[in-house]
Specification:
The chain is an alpha/beta fold. It has eleven helices and 18 strands. It starts with a helix and ends with a strand. It binds alpha-D-galactopyranose. Alpha-D-galactopyranose binds next to loops.
Length: 401
């Protein structure tokens, strides 16, 4: 009797574990999303061209595998059975065919919907259709679902997202669940059990620190995410403590390579996203990308920092007029450091590791990630000339005695 109860208990726990799709997003998801550049101007030719280019330019092999169709991919109405259907003009071959195309080329297929009755763009939302939609996504071969929060009335976010998660579990296809609730209900406090990543703020746009009504520059987003829990400085990384393998804070998609940013601003942005263990979802038009941006976005050493398996999010260690220092603990005792020029002009910025860097635990070798050069040790000052809003990215490795 006891033995059978134990067996039953084990079966229940193992099914609960299997349901959580635990092996997914052990490092921050990487891919490409249609929204930042294309908004509603999407179609299957664009997606296929983008995938083909991402094979050729090295993005896929650098880890950008989730290709995500954001809002406006669906028809204006569900079909007679209440099923979501692809927009007939934009995606005439249908979603299953598009998913197959992506899978055949080594990508994973991502799609968007919304917890409310309609998406932000006014297309059919998932409210009340969660289990049915999850079955459809599984049938289409979807691997990633971004789930937005427009038109959700006074619904409780945790309940609404949990219902969609349960729909995904019931459909039994492992799907990365990206919660896009913009931080209003402090999703970092509840979402680790529900999804794999959660937005912490409103939308990003391609500027350094502009603030529009709903969209803001990457530095504004960084500051917002970092100040979500107080105090957030020194050794306290704000909401960073809620992130880890399988559950990530999401400061929104990359604006790297978009027109509103200088190259320096794209590089500063990328460095900070790597320090923050942020999902790296490219949002630029990869069909027209300069060699510098291609090299930046596929930089192996920067991506290795973002994807570090320890999964610890970094924090702002020091902020001074004109510069900020951000640090992130990595596996194997290494540290990543970003030195950001927040000023309006080019400047020589320095780090004096002899002041307050006790957590490094001893002398470290310094590697300049962008220049691919050794840059001495932490016993010496590190100095670099940085354009406005650029960031140096360093990897420190303890020198064993
Ligand atoms: C919201 C989200 C964005 C994008 C749009 C689509 O604003 O936060 O990331 O998905 O909706 O309408």
């Amino acid at each position: 009797m006891k033995k059978s109860l134990l067996l039953l208990f084990c079966a229940i726990c193992s099914s609960a574990i299997a349901q959580k799709f635990e092996g997914l997003a052990l490092t921050p998801p990487m891919g490409w999303n249609t929204w930042n550049t294309f908004s509603s101007n999407i179609n299957e030719a664009l997606i296929m061209q983008t995938a083909d280019i991402m094979v050729k330019n090295g993005m896929r092999d650098a880890g950008y595998v989730y290709i995500v169709l954001d809002d406006t991919w669906s028809a204006m109405e569900r079909d007679a059975h209440g099923n979501l259907v692809a927009h007939p003009e934009k995606f005439p071959s249908g979603m299953k065919a598009l998913g197959d195309y992506l899978h055949e080329r080594g990508f994973k297929f991502g799609i968007y919907n919304c917890a409310g009755k309609k998406t932000c763009g006014g297309f059919p939302g998932g409210w009340g259709h969660e289990f049915q939609d999850a079955l459809k996504y599984a049938e289409w071969g979807v691997d990633y679902l971004k789930y937005d929060w427009c038109n959700s009335g006074d619904a409780n976010p945790k309940d609404a997202y949990t219902r969609m998660r349960d729909g995904l579990y019931a459909a039994k296809r492992p799907i990365v669940f990206s919660i896009c609730e913009w931080g209003g209900s402090k999703p970092w406090e509840w979402a680790a059990e529900v999804g794999h990543l959660w937005r912490t703020t409103g939308d990003i746009t391609d500027c350094f620190d502009c603030k529009q009504r709903w969209e803001q520059g990457w530095k504004v987003i960084v500051d917002l995410q970092f100040s979500q829990v107080q105090p957030a400085d020194g050794q306290n990384n704000g909401i960073g403590k809620y992130a880890g393998p399988g559950h990530w804070n999401d400061p929104d998609m990359l604006e790297v390579g978009r027109d509103g940013l200088t190259y320096a601003e794209s590089r500063g942005h990328f460095a900070l996203w790597c320090i923050l263990a942020a999902p790296l979802m490219a949002g630029n038009d990869v069909r027209h990308m300069s060699p510098e941006i291609t090299a930046l976005i596929t930089d192996k050493d920067a991506i290795a920092i973002d994807q570090d398996k320890l999964g610890k999010e970094g924090w702002r260690f020091r902020a001074e007029p004109g510069q900020e220092m951000w640090v992130r603990e990595l596996s194997g005792g290494d540290w990543a450091v970003a030195l950001l020029n927040t000023g309006k002009s080019t400047a020589d910025l320095s780090i004096d590791f002899s002041h307050g860097w006790w957590f490094l635990g001893g002398n470290c070798a310094v590697r300049d990630v962008w220049d691919k050069k050794d840059a001495g040790t932490t016993e010496k000052k590190f100095t670099k000339r940085l354009d406005s809003h650029d960031a140096a990215l360093l990897r420190l490795t303890p020198i064993k005695k």
